[in-house]
Amino acid sequence: LAAMTWAPLAGATGVSLALSAPQATGGSSVTMRITLDAAAPTGGTTVLLASSQPGVTIVDATSGTAISSVIVPAGGRSRDVAIRTTPVAAGVAAQLTAAVPSGKAAVILNVLAPAVLSLRLAADSAVGGNPIAVSVTLSGPAPRGGYPVALSSKTLPLDPRAGLVVPERATTATAQLATQQPAACRSASRI
Q1: Res 12: pLDDT
Q2: All residues at 6 or more sequence positions from 139 whose CB lies less than 8 Å from its CB, including other chains
Q3: Whole-prediction pTM value?
């Protein structure tokens, strides 16, 4: 019998994935590059795409529409897509996968909950018993239902239940917080 030689099918290439950033605050987007091990054949190579989290969507980088596959054109080796995230109350890890006839690849995107970036008082001091305006800014949009921020102070006699809620999809909120009447005037230069 003649010896048989095995050769890979034309266009049957492996694939790899790379993210522009390993993490993103919910509500923001990153870019994912899909790279084939070899140039796509005539007709291109179709890459099937999937995300393990419903709030993390793979979209066409140009149109912004959700996609489940992309074609690397003939002669090309790579294609970029956008990964769009939604605001989250707690961090989640999304597994993004790409598959071609000869194999598949996966990468993890960590989606972060927003963090408090800044806290600002409307004035450097306040008379006890009078309300004081406080503004909070988050690192990203608040998730569904809003993002509660509890407040406390070492120098200002705030109500123990003091706090505010940043509305859904917003990044800032301002509230009038009640203060308790202190024995003497106290500085509120820092919370």
Answers
A1: 41
A2: 25, 114, 115, 116, 117, 171
A3: 0.78
User: CA 124 → CA 81, 161, 191, distances in Å?
Assistant: 47, 22, 10
Read off the pLDDT of residues 19-65 as tens digits, 9 standing for 90 and up.
999 999 999 999 999 999 999 999 999 999 999 999 999 999 999 99
Could you give the CA distance from residue 190 to residue 188 in angstroms, rounded to a whole number? 5
Please write the tens of the pLDDT for every residue from 59-87. 999 999 999 999 999 999 999 999 999 99
Tokens of 174: 């301002």
Torsion of CA 13, 14, 19, 20, to 10 degrees: -40
Residue 90, judged by CB atoms within 10 A of its CB (0-12, 13-18, 19+), counts as: exposed
Give every CB contact of residue 119 below 8 A, 6+ residues apart in sequence. Answer: 134, 135, 136, 137, 151, 191
Q: Which residue type is seen at 177?
A: L
